[in-house]
Amino acid sequence: MAHSNLFGGAIGMQRDNNKYHIDDPTNWPHGLDKWTPSKLFKIALYFGVCFCFALTIPNNLWDPELRQITFIIGVLGIWRYSWWFTHAVRAWIYGRFVYPSIRERGRKLWQAGWRPRHLHFMMTTYLEHRDITEKVVRSILMEIRCSGVPGTIWLGSSVRRDEDIVCGVLRREAQNLDVTLRIIRQNVPGKRAAIGLVLRAMNRNAVEEDDLVVFMDGDFILTRGAISSCMPLFKLFPDLQACTTNEEVICIGPKWISIWLEMRFAQRRLAMQSHSLSKRVLTLTGRMSVFSARHLLRHEFIRLLEADHLDHWLWGNFRFLSGDDKSTWYYMLKARVVMLYVPDALGYTVEVIEGSGLERMVQNFRRWSGNMLRNGMRATKLGPRKMPFFIWWCLVDQRLSMWTMLVSPVLALSASILYTPSYILSYVLFIAVSRMLLSLFLYQYARTISLVYPWILYFNQLINASVKVYCIFRLSKQKWTNRGNQSSSAEGDALLNKARNVMAIWCTSVSVTALFLGTIIYSELLAIPSLGDSKLLLLHLFDF
C-alpha cells in the first residue's frame, strides 16, 4: 500500500475547536514496518491465550449429540475461508506481478512525454467543512501542476457558500496554472442531479472522447501522483474505460469507528485487487474514479445516473437515491469494457462523525447494503456470458453470504440453549481463532496491526448480513444523511404503502424463521416427528 505526501502537508486530521487541521502521516507504518517484534509478540500471545482457553473449557465440539453442528459449522467455515483464501491469492498475484508490470509500462509511456489532451474534475460537494474543501481543491491543483495537463474543475453545487470557498482557493493559488472553474448550480436536490447537470454541461462544452474525467466527492483528498498513476493506463489499454483507486480513511470521531473504517478499507483493497485480476471490479467508487469521456457523454449513461431505478415486485418502480457509483459500474459492466483497480493511486476520505457513532454505522450499512442489493440483483441477471465468470460468481456469492453468515451463530445459540450452555464457549474460541487467521491477511492491506480486528471483523460480518436480510425486502427504503438528510421510498397512497410494509415484515419473518428452523432441523437439534409418531399423537389427542 503506497502512501504519498500531500502538497507539503499531511493527511491525518485532528479536531480542535470545530476546526480541522492536517497532521504529518509519515509516522504511519508501511509494509513490513508494521510487523514489529512487539506486534508479533502480541499476536503470538493472542494465540497462546486461545490455546490455554481451549485446554480449560469443556470440549463439546465432538459430543455425539452435537457432532452434526460442529460438522456444519466446519463445512461452512471451510467454504468461506477457501473463498477468502482465493481472493487473497488473486490479490497477491495482481499486486505482486500483474500491476507492477502495468505500472512500469505506464511509467515509460509517461516519461516518453505522452499526456492526455485535457483533465476534467467532476466534483460534487454539499456544505462540507471549509478546511476539508480547501484541501480537496489544493490537491486537485497539485495534480494539475505535477502532470502538466490542462484541467477544468466542474463544480456541482447547490449553495453559494461551497462555490465561494472553491473560488477563494483558486484566486489565491491557481494564478499560474492552466485551470478553469465551471460552476454548475443544481436546480433539484441530490447528488445524482448534480452529476447529471455537470455531464450535460460537459456535452455542451467540447469535451472530447479521449479526455479523462475524474469523478470525486467533496471530501476526498488526492495524494501526489494519484491521477498521474491512472492516466497512462487509458493509453496502454484501449478497452479500459474506468479506473477505481485506493482509499485511506481519516476519521474524526470515536476511535472504534476509526478502527472499523480502517478495517473495511483493508478489506476493500484485498477484494479490489482480486477482482481486478479479471479486468473488472465490483464497484467504481464515487469517492474518486477516473473515466474515459467516451461513454460519459452518451445520453444513456447520463440518464442512468440521473434517474436510475428498479422495478421491484413489491415496491413497484422507484428511483435510486444514493449509489451513483454503482450505476456507473453497472453501465460499464453491461458495455463489457475493462475496469481496473490502481493500488498506488491513493486518496484520503474524510469521515466526520457527529452525533451517535453507532447510528452512523447502521446508516452506512443500510446505504451500502441497499446499493449492493439493488444493483447486484440486476447485474447477476446479466449472466456469466456478459462478464468474466469469476466476477459473476462474486455477485452470486454476495447474495449467498448474507444467509450463510447467520447459520453458525444460530447453531451455536441453539446448541447452547437446547443442550449445554458451555457450547457457546467453544464457538467463541472458534471465532477468536478463525477471525484472527483472516485478519493476518488483512494486516497486509491495513494501516496498522490491531488485535481488535478479529472481533470487529466478526461483528462487521454479522451486522452486515443482518442488515442485508432486513434490506432485501425493503429496497425502496433509502436515507442519506450526508446529503441533506434525503430519504425516499416507493410512491403510492398511504394504504398501499402500509400494505407493502406489512408484506415486507411478513417476508422477513418467514425468511428468518425458515433459516432458523431449516438450520436446527438439518443439524438434528430438532427432530421432525415421523408419520407413525404423528398418527399416535392424533389418536392420543382424540382418544375418547
Explain what the structure shows.
There is one protein chain. With 544 residues, the chain is an alpha/beta fold. It folds into two domains: 12-480, Spore Coat Polysaccharide Biosynthesis Protein SpsA, Chain A (Alpha-Beta Complex); 494-541. Helix content is 54%, strand content 16%. The chain has helices at residues 37-56, 67-111, 130-147, 160-173, 191-203, 231-236, 255-276, 293-296, 299-307, 324-334, 357-381, 389-418, 423-442, 453-471, 494-522, 531-541, and strands spanning 12-16, 19-23, 119-124, 151-157, 179-185, 212-217, 220-222, 240-252, 288-292, 309-312, 316-319, 338-352, 478-480, 486-488. β3, α3 and β4 (151-157) form a beta-alpha-beta unit. α2 (67-111) packs antiparallel against α12 (389-418), α11 (357-381) crosses α14 (453-471) and α13 packs across α14 (453-471). It is globular, with a radius of gyration of 26 Å.
List the SSEs and their pairings:
Elements: E1 12-16, E2 19-23, H1 37-56, H2 67-111, E3 119-124, H3 130-147, E4 151-157, H4 160-173, E5 179-185, H5 191-203, E6 212-217, E7 220-222, H6 231-236, E8 240-252, H7 255-276, E9 288-292, H8 293-296, H9 299-307, E10 309-312, E11 316-319, H10 324-334, E12 338-352, H11 357-381, H12 389-418, H13 423-442, H14 453-471, E13 478-480, E14 486-488, H15 494-522, H16 531-541
Parallel strand pairs: 3-4, 3-6, 4-5, 8-12
Antiparallel strand pairs: 1-2, 6-9, 7-12, 8-9, 10-11, 13-14
Helix pairs in contact: 1-13, 2-7, 2-12, 3-4, 5-9, 10-11, 11-12, 11-14, 12-14, 12-15, 13-14
